[in-house]
């Protein structure tokens, strides 16, 4: 579970012990400027991350 400000209000987190990361996978020759749709799991920190940056692609 990723630590976010809203979650801090409901959960008492311990000190983080493992950094998480994300990756976007696409064909080698993909022009990301032309990408129209990105799939992401609902309710994840990655959904919120992308929603702030690429609203029109979700």
TrEMBL record:
UniProt-listed SUPFAM superfamilies: Periplasmic binding protein-like II
Domain of life where this protein originates: Bacteria
Protein name: ABC transporter arginine-binding protein
Organism of origin: Mannheimia haemolytica (Pasteurella haemolytica)
